[in-house]
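Reminder: ligand-aware prediction takes two inputs, not one.
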Amino acid sequence: MTTATYNADSIQVLEGLEPVRKRPGMYIGGVGSAGLHHLVWEILDNAVDEAMNGYATSIEVALHAEGTAVTVTDNGRGMPTDVHKQTKKSALEVIFTMLHAGGKFDHKNYTTSGGLHGVGASVVNALSKELTATVRRDGSQWSMTFKRGKPVGKLSKTNGARGSGSSVYFHPDPDIFPKIEFDAALIRERCEVISYIHKGLKVMFVDEVNKERYSFDHEDGLTAFLKKLLTQHAGTSGSTPASGAKPVHEVPFTLTKENGTKIDLALQWTEATDEYVKSYVNGIPTGSGGTHETGLRTGVAKAVRNFIETHNLMPKGVTVSADDIREGMYGVLSVFATDPQFQGQTKDRLNNPEIATHVDSTVRPALEQWLNQNRSVAEAIVARIILAARAREASRAAQAEVTRKTATTGRLNLPGKLSDCTAHDAAGSELFIVEGDSAGGSAKQGRDRTRQAILPLRGKVLNTEGASLQKVLENKELADLVTALGCGVGKSFDLGRLRYGKIIILTDADSDGHHIATLLLTFIYRYMPELMRAGRVYLAQPPLYRVDIGKETYWAKDDPDRDRILKECNGRAKPEITRFKGLGEMMPKVLWETTLNPKTRRLLRVEIADPLATDRVIAELMGKDASARFKFIMDRAEEAQELDL
Ligand code: 1YM
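Here is what comes back for the chain with 1YM:
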């Protein structure tokens, strides 16, 4: 990192702030919540830069009481206040009122959050209803206030200030942002991540909205971050592992290298079956990965494979894939690049090809050396990898079993209890997964056999949350379902091979029925989510009541539906209400009319509205962690009570 000293002349001036207010999206991506928070990240980045340059040791972010204004403070040198020759204005005013002003846009520094190259301060000012910059420097305190980017009054000076540093208070402009509401949790998380990535930097967050204070300070940097990831069970983000991960070795592999692109890495193998790497570029989370993650993956695979081969550690008959090597691998990767290119809809995927090569060629030799120097650790990791390879072989064999085709016909070996439809095209056909044998019988008799297939569920459906594919396929009900669908499961899923157009879950309208439906949905969501994304999964809506009023018959799917019908027919004739105990006691003809017949039935299509929230809810409700489930239920106890009444 260069630390060239500032002098007022090094500031280049290009233009005023009008363009920013005209086209805020060009500078901060948009005026929604992400754009609003971008303002905080810009000012915070300037403070972090001052720390990275070695001048600041602590940063404080305060979210003010209404949640509409923020102050960022650092204890660095303080922004320059001397007179800028070219404009005859103070450097402070220039920094906040001129676009592309600053010694920073000549690649002297790494670009940070939005790649604004140091124009951040002026952009934030342009988009703020009010902004005050305060500087302590050389025994004085300086301060200047702006409204919508324009100075109000002069730079003020007070003598007798102690220490040094910069502070920026800003209130975003409601003329620009339709909704001004900062997210305390998001800012808190960003502060915490910064304290991990810049080890030793103290980052405080003062949340005046919720009256809470946080102080993050991690001498151990990414190692501490990784430790936290391992112990964390279901977290707030969808990509957080659903279950805690038990490490297979004590001390993680760490690497810090700074030649060109700076790389910081902490890596640890665990007993978990997923691979989980959190990555950052210039302190910005890269949720969609990119070339730095690719470089890490290839580097790790090569190093481990080389180590295994050199020491001849593979048992006979076992072959390891790159996936086996990375199974259970948890890590945090942070890189700082001078010219990062971001890609993708949310611009959170790194796209510089040279960074893949750089990370690969940095990680590979370092990891291989570490493995050689820590033989017992290395052997524990290799044992973990052999286990992964064996489990993969076993589950592949189990899966081959359920999707096996008969040698003679080349057709699938369909489960015996499936009553298939006669039509062969998937598009117009439907598979009903029906709870219980007797309901299955009614459905089989009542259906349109050309287009509707029935798969009755006899035994218990396994809760698949946190279960291995092998366990899942050992469950007869689920194995039969996979076979009937024909599209494979997990990594070998292929929507093109799906044998039906619609998959319809048909369970009783009671709590047992809802439970079975939930178990089936959990299975589909975890093992064949593409089915849901493609809109192919539905819930049938069988009636719970039959209401006869005079000669008319109505069907109600639940109590409110029944009450609505009673209200609408009020006074016409004495209503007669029948409650079905289950689908099984419904006549086939009635089942056809109410639930199966495409012309008269109602279906609910299952959609994944918010993938992150869905993932979290499933992990909390269906996972092994009973305390998460308890919390989920208690948080919603009031809602639940209302529903019960
Ligand atoms: C609360 C936000 O902006 N701190 C901050 C900013 C600057 C400096 C120190 C600074 C930089 C340099 C020299 C230099 C900035 N300087 C500039 C400009 N905290 C916050 N702390 N002296 C002080 O880079 O050479 C822009 S920001 F324009 F002078 F380079």
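The radius of gyration is 31 Å. The chain is about 35% helix and 20% strand. We will return to this case in the review session.
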